Amino acid sequence: MATGFIYHPDYLLHNASISHPERPDRLRAIVARLQESGLWGKLHHIQPEPAERQWIELAHSAEHINMVEDAAESAPAYLDPDTHVSRESFDVALLAVGGGLAACDAAMEGRCRNAFAAVRPPGHHAETSAAMGFCLFNNVAIAARYLQQFHGLERVAILDWDVHHGNGTQHILEADPSILYISIHQHPLYPGTGLREEQGVGSGIGATLNIPLPGGCGDSEYAVAFNEIEEVVSQFQPEFLLISAGFDAHHRDPLASMRLTADGFRQMTKRALHLANQHCSNRLVMLLEGGYDLIGLSASVEACLEEMMVNNGG
User: Fold this and answer.
1) Using CA atoms, how far apart are residues 305 and 276, in angstroms rounded to an integer?
2) Is residue 125 annotated as a catalytic residue, yes or no?
3) Which domains are present in the chain?
4) Which end of the chain is more exposed for a tag (fewer CB within 10 A), N or C?
5) Residue 144 near residue 157, CB atoms below 8 Å
6) What's the confidence (pLDDT) of residue 314?
7) pLDDT recorded at residue 312
8) Which of the residues in the chain have pLDDT under 50?
9) CB 242 within 8 A of CB 159
């Protein structure tokens, strides 16, 4: 059973600005690397459809959705100092959400055991009613709720290893005890959230785990932190594992100061796959978040996919 790979050339149409770090070249670099290595032909390719509005409303207010649509219609526009939209951005954001949903469908329906959704724009900073940090809609939070609403799952876990804390995912899900959110990130760093004491609110207390690490941490420090991740996920017993797969903790990345290598991402993938094997009937989906050095990004994605294919017997 091949590993699924979700991609659409229209993801290249979202264009924040010429000098913006979240640029179409990110996906071009990933695709080129996979083609050059030969992995491209071994993947199960899935072309997504734009998500229906009802699924986006699982995580966002109607006012927010309308705001993003209106901003794109009057583009170029700035939703915050870091988050820009072009005329195509709303439609591409729908397609990015749809990419995550298509990956979940493929895993749930047994068309692939695990999948990587190479989507943009990213999502984990987008809050219920706010776009920020390059993110318009929260792809992973929507995917988690979709797995519950459409596929009938009860417990979903999200592991976010982007170097920046996923404030949006935490904000949307912090009162929900049925979705476990774990973030391992550099602190202090944008957006300034993600402290240890942030553990959820109300009935969701205990379903949020933040592991802030100082700048300069690399493969060995992440490996130690993963021991805690494994313990918490095993206690939660999820039925599906989603990963907000940012690669900006790579040592080459210009927006942070972590020291992970591509092999470090490979090892985290291996351990995440083991958790999915233990608790989730092997169902694991990665959704692309950050990663802004093209060499570090593409090498790390390749390493993750190689490990996912090994897990599939590929």
Assistant:
1) 15
2) yes
3) 4-311 (3.40.800.20)
4) N
5) no
6) 45
7) 63
8) 313-314
9) yes
